[in-house]
């Protein structure tokens, strides 16, 4: 019983620390969510799932779209006016989302 209480106390103390690491929902999420979904699960055919992608990959991809290194006019128009801080917040949000089990089975 003592071991169970100690384990429960440890988990209770660790929970706030885990919550602090979770990114807050980006203010600029709306436009991205229209195609990629709020939780990173694509809402339209052809849009990739962003949930669980590597943070460094998403950061670079977003900057490349904005700066024109990746020539996708829709993406450039969508994120063109966003600052590095906005892009970082979006990358953090999507990289922290979990990929749904159904996405793993879809082609």
TrEMBL record:
<keyword id="KW-0813">Transport</keyword>
<dbReference type="Pfam" id="PF13442">
    <property type="entry name" value="Cytochrome_CBB3"/>
</dbReference>
<keyword id="KW-0732">Signal</keyword>
<keyword id="KW-0349">Heme</keyword>
<dbReference type="InterPro" id="IPR009056">
    <property type="entry name" value="Cyt_c-like_dom"/>
</dbReference>
<dbReference type="InterPro" id="IPR036909">
    <property type="entry name" value="Cyt_c-like_dom_sf"/>
</dbReference>
<feature type="signal peptide">
    <location>
        <begin position="1"/>
        <end position="19"/>
    </location>
</feature>
<protein>
    <submittedName>
        <fullName>C-type cytochrome</fullName>
    </submittedName>
</protein>
<keyword id="KW-0249">Electron transport</keyword>
<dbReference type="InterPro" id="IPR050597">
    <property type="entry name" value="Cytochrome_c_Oxidase_Subunit"/>
</dbReference>
<keyword id="KW-0408">Iron</keyword>
<feature type="domain" description="Cytochrome c">
    <location>
        <begin position="19"/>
        <end position="98"/>
    </location>
</feature>
<keyword id="KW-0479">Metal-binding</keyword>
């Amino acid at each position: 019983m003592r071991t169970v209480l100690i384990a429960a106390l440890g988990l209770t103390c660790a929970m706030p620390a885990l919550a602090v690491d979770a990114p807050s929902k980006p203010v600029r999420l709306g436009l991205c969510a229209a195609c990629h979904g709020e939780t990173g699960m694509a809402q339209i055919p052809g849009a990739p799932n962003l949930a669980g992608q590597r943070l460094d990959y998403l950061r670079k991809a977003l900057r490349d779209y904005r700066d024109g290194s990746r020539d996708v006019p829709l993406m450039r128009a969508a994120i063109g006016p966003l600052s590095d801080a906005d892009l970082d917040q979006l990358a953090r949000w999507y990289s922290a989302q979990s990929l749904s089990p159904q996405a793993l089975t879809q082609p």
